[in-house]
Amino acid sequence: MGIFDRLANLDRRLIFLVIGLAVAVPIILKIKMPIRISSEVRSAYETIENLPEGSVVLASMDYDATSAPELTPMFRSFLRQCFRNKLKVVYTGHLAIGMPLAQFDLDAVTEECGAVYGVDYINLGYRPGFTAVMIGIGREIRDFFAVDYKGVPVDSFPMMKDIHNYSDIALIVDFAHGQTAEYWIQYVVSRFGVKMFACVTGVMAPTLYTYLQSGQITGIIGGLQGAAEYEVLVGQPESAAFGMPAQSIAHLFILAFIVFGNIGFFITRRKK
Amino acid sequence: MKRDIPLIITFLTGFLCVIAFFIPHPPFGDLQQRFLVWYAIVAGFTMILGLDSLVKYNVKKITQHKPGWQYSYVLLFGLALVLVTGFQSWFKYNTPFELRSSFMYSYIHIIVPLQATMFALLAFFISSSAYRAFRARTFEATLLLIAAAIVMLGRVPIGEMISDKIPLRSDWLLNVPQLAAKRGIQVGVYLGGVVMSLRIILGIERTYLT
Amino acid sequence: MNLLGTWIAAGLTIAILSFLYRDNPFYKFAEHLFVGVSAGYWVIYIWAFDVQPMLVDEFLRQVGIEKWLLVIPAVFGLMMMARWFPAAAWVSRWPISFTVGIAAGLALTAQVQGYIIPQIQATLLPVVSIGATTAETVGQSINNIVILVGVICALLYFYFSREHKGALKVGSKIGIVFLMIGFGASFGYTVMARISLLIGRLTFLLQVFGLR
Description:
Order of helices and strands of chain A: HHHEHEHEHEHEHEHH
CATH class of the largest domain in chain A: Alpha Beta
Number of helices of chain C: 7
Number of helices of chain A: 10
Largest sheet of chain C: none
CATH architecture of the largest domain in chain A: 3-Layer(aba) Sandwich
CATH topology of the largest domain in chain A: Rossmann fold
Largest interface: B-C, 121 and 110 residues
Oligomer: heterotrimer
Strand content of chain A: 5-15%
Helix content of chain C: over 70%
Largest sheet of chain A: 6 strands, parallel
Structural class of chain A: alpha/beta
Helix content of chain A: 40-55%
Order of helices and strands of chain C: HHHHHHH
């Protein structure tokens, strides 16, 4: 087997090893790279900046551990921005298995920002039914969430006194790794006229550009790069910004493998 | 009873939701809200339907000593462990979601790493498949390859370090031709979705009854 | 306890990653454990977030007719369980019809109002769009034309009611160019997402081993 044949037929375990190292080495060496801010992330950031003090933001946690490295940094930055601007956060979710992840971040950030449960934020927990719950909140949130995630009646919390439906909510932010961001846009944004932006995984981000251009959402924070940009804008770079060098190097190696594969393929094809 | 009543239920509930969209006032709006709450309750039950077949399959695997039967013990142990810790935490703290509870302990140290790593494996497989499948054999394949390469470079900091034009090209690609392609696909999908919804409400589409 | 938990998590992470070499008993162990704990987790969650607050607590809280109306979704939920018994499986058709009807009714209006109308509206853009500068005018106009042509041609590619020849063939050929660019861009973003997950897991492992 010639060198070009080998190049076109590398052992997959060699690729695995190289990708593993391409990710691990920059993390160990703590390499840093500058983060460029894209317009879609900036406009998401500015949507929150432009909200008046005391506005209510509904955060929907629609992800689990499978996408936490991308969405956790977004959620933490979002909480910091909201509490810094003295906004109230109501949080719920449509993916049961991921709900506690968001609670860990809430606990960490609220302690850092001095936010008080029931006054500055509340966790309403999860309800099955996706779109039915989304539309039902449009009439009365208590029909679905009479109690918070620990079973305490929501009316016992001061911040919930004046929150009944979407007319009391200034903004929806969906943290999603699936189709829920699209559900929120189609079933709620269009029907009830609430503002929204989406924090989504890299897999979901391309689909949402159509909604951004049509003006149905005000911004997209997509993938680890979007999370890193948002961290920089909020002024507290953490896991996403620190992960971008590893991301960059891994992308370079994948592209190098694609180039090697093509060189090997074309030269061996010409020989035949 | 077996066929007509389900079709009538589908028609009435579907039609009510359409009416309540146009007339969101009593009685339609109220009735729809009640149905939505019921929907959420019933939807919960559907999510544990698979539990029965999962347990039955694995018990059968153990009793018949099918290949890999030992692992079925692991599965049933995991299921029992979470159920026991869940209800124990509930009784102890009045909620299973207390962070100090054994249920949350099993969540943090078992479910999270298993779920996250299962998907992290895909990083390796997507790299390997990109290497094998991304061959510029045709004009279309070359286009796909170039678009992927631009986005892969343009959406990470190193792209800008190579050339400040790369992120701009990537942004344009995502905001213009990519957007057009996605919209073209999805307009078709959602037109199909509307037709399918109508067929279901009118009882023409009945596959969900089989 | 936390140290033990961290090592359990690290051990399970390595067990799953061992699949990269080849399928092995450690991977199988972790895989089966994952399925089991996930199923158990759903049961607790559905009870804690659905049955208990929406059914049991509400039944105890409500009075009069409102209380007894809750029997209907409870019965529907139990009827759904009839699928576990083949002879009575048809009973589950009633609650299934109820959920299917609601979902179809909501989707019908949402897809028209939330996708089709706003997206078509956002496609029908002026092909000459005047900007602040000449470059902006040219750029914006080109973008609008590309979006309009791209959407129409992508739709034409999926139009199978007539043979693709003549103008339809040209349109669908242009359509496939857009589709390939779209799929390529999605693939690029997907690679990014998968690598991000690996970064998350490797960061955890490197922290456990004191390398980060």
